[in-house]
Specification:
Elements (H helix, E strand, L loop, with lengths): L8 E5 H14 L5 E8 L10 E7 L5 E2 L4 E2 L11 E8 L8 H6 L5 E6 L7 E4 L5 E2 L2 E3 L14 H9 L1
Parallel strand pairs: 1-3, 1-10, 6-7
Antiparallel strand pairs: 2-3, 2-6, 4-5, 7-8, 8-9
Length: 161
Amino acid sequence: MRLFRSGGVLGIADDTLEFALEASDETHPNEYMGFLRGTDARDLGLDRDGTVITDVLVIPGTTSSPESATVRENLIPNGSRAVGSIHSHPNGVLRPSNQDLTTFHAGSVHVIVGAPYERDCWRAFDPDGEPTELDVLDVDLPDDDAFFDFDQSDIDAELRE
């Protein structure tokens, strides 16, 4: 599977954005935090080079409050296909804070969603915190059952690394 081609991140799947908005609303008044995972556009039937954001990966042990969310980076699985991050601002502000900018180093796109978590309550940013366009794409998401095909021994092995 070719994940990172010259086309970069083309957009976010409509269902993925909807999931993130709903999860942020359910987490409110605390911040929501996750990593964005991508799938090659050609694997989704698109005749374009690049990656489409198709998943939000929530890391176990993530803590959140109304002011921040903290991820235990040592629990991020290898090969997670991360292309960036997503988090909510319960106060509704759709621009990165200074703290946000320090976390934007990993990945090429970072999404902030804000209260009241409606379809127009989100913005995308590049690693420098500058606004960037991110199309919402109507694609059929792949069944990624293999991602959930693990047991306790797999979890124990991952934690030992």
